[in-house]
Amino acid sequence: MAGPGAPSHIGWPPMAEGWGYAGSPSLSGLTAGTMTLVEGTSFCISSPTGDIHRGTAQGLFYRDTRFLSRWELTVNGGIPQPLSVVPHEPFAASFVSRVRPHHGQADSTLLVVRRRFVGSGMREDLVVRNLAREPAACSVLMSLEADFAHLFEVKEDRVSPKGEPEVDVAGRTLTYRLAWLDSSRALQLSVADEVLLLPGMARLQVVVPARGEWSTCFQVSLSMDGEPVPPRYRCSDPVERSKPAARLRAWRRKTPSVITGHEGFNALVARSEEDLGALRIFESDHTNHGPAGAVIAAGAPWYMTLFGRDSLITSWMTLPVDPSVAIGTLLTLARFQGQRVDQLSEEEPGRILHEMRWGVTRPEETRAGDLYYGTADATPLFVMLLGELRRWGLADSLVDRLLPHADRALEWIERYGDRDGDGFVEYQRATDRGLVNQGWKDSWDAINFASGRLAEPPIALCEVQGYVYAAYMARAHFAREAKDEEADRHYRDKAARLKSAFNKHFWLEDKGYPAVGLDGDKRPIDSLTSNIGHCLWTGILDPPRARKVAARLMSPEMFTGWGIRTLASSMGSYNPVSYHNGSVWPHDSAIVAAGLMRYGFVAEAQRIALGLIEASEAFEGRLPELFCGFGRSEFSLPVRYPTSGSPQAWAAAAPFSLLRTLLRLDPWIPRLQVHLAPALPSELGDVKVVNVPLAGTRITIEVTDGKTTVGGLPPDIQLLAEPRPPLPG
Fold it and tell me: What is the architecture, at CATH level 2, of domain 35-238?
């Protein structure tokens, strides 16, 4: 994932050059035939039988630690044959199998159902159903192990023991404990029925009545540094009363409903809402390194934590869905805003973090705690999102409270981000353990020249300059609202100077597009990339040049028919099956579509939106993190990228960004205005969106036969049936 894929900080050993990056995660033992359940910072990866096999990337994980590394069921000495997996919620599923038939018989008479619930531990209800006319004697054995490995040790297939866990048995409870340096972890298995517990196993001898069933409940509870983690689901309580179930019901009640004439888009929106609801994190960590409200984790299975860039962009895209995500994200990132200079974590005063992690690590792997700050774009994106929250008329008192954090972020931009005083924000990692590239394309080989040669840092990326420009304009708007004319002029001047310098130094006249960046010698990095679409989104590009950029973005070398390639097919490093050098990322394409629409390229934005909607139909109604960059002339369906995350936050947010783009919905509540000028492709038919949060209320937008009506809009707000001007006012 864009920020998340790297072993990007704290607790990871330095990777060999050419591997330590955000792309193509090593998933030894993890195949398409696995099942992932997610809740908060917990997730469980298992086989389709429900088993967790040792020596694979499967397991029960919580806060970056794998607690269960083995969880295998046998009945009467054999492994049940899988029949079906029935998903119930993002955190719950039933694994249905049968006991193998007796020798010489075609059919089995014993059905096994494992109902699993994941969240701050795990509960598994085991049911054995006897389909025969006589009672069945059954021997049930659950084999388990706990290795307490760090998530990235598992992901990269480099798990090594940190000592031997202590194992204790007391009554119906089996406990594994591991102390390592100044950390400790524990796992406790409790069984509801009479059971024989030994290290590594729980055995039950039962008789299942004829035409009846037998059941028991396994409770897996966790402990971190001596503090028990309250389980989400207790064997004694109905699951529907659990907090995750209640939160998901509340999420479904308050999220907008979207009804269009395109069934594929309706399915995509519904799936995306479910995914976003599942990826939310609420609970605080025992070290207070937790969210200050609901935030969106970057994606499953490996990135169930807060990422600065990912969470900010996802929050921006989902403002029409649930602004509380943006509020929680801003509060949390403000809490951990940089205070000091630390080379190991790349923390700097005012800087917004890149990644938050937990987990037990080795001393030679440890950096500076749980936070890593190595990103160039999260800091201006923080200011941008704060400004956008104000434009929507949401959480005014909170926005005012966070304004000093925005000012500290702008101070970082000028003091630390602009390393050489040339007016542009550059990045260069502080040590050999940091991310080589620190924009959203942060794989080690993502920034390259048209020839394929890698760019050398410090690097000033084009989209980062756009984010900084938009951050300056947002701060100027805050100043204007406060009638602070001096601050208003100050930040507008900064924005104007940056825009002028950008169009002078980044524009490649002979190619008709901006450079993706400037390298350490201030040479334009001349590859054609999707990054330039972000410059349209933020408004930093001069309008006369926008038409040329739009033409390049929609050319066959960039547009596959389903989305925009990250790197043009004509470039030296192009590879359609790479992470950042020719693949298609839905969130990236959605940002490009928004930028094109902003500058008035309606048909082009519509083509991208329809392409992504059609692509989702090939991925079971869900947009993946990324897919391969082959064009429609090569294959009739988009090709999966082998290790694409799913569900993934900004991919799930992309459909709502597309919807907002096509509606041309741009509120400016402080000015008592809402721009709404739908430019819907005919394929979507009539559109109705109910329950959109705006200005502290909920509105309904309906477009029928080309006529737009809005319900619930406060009477003092003017509805402007025209698109927002491309340049900020």
Answer: Distorted Sandwich (2.70)
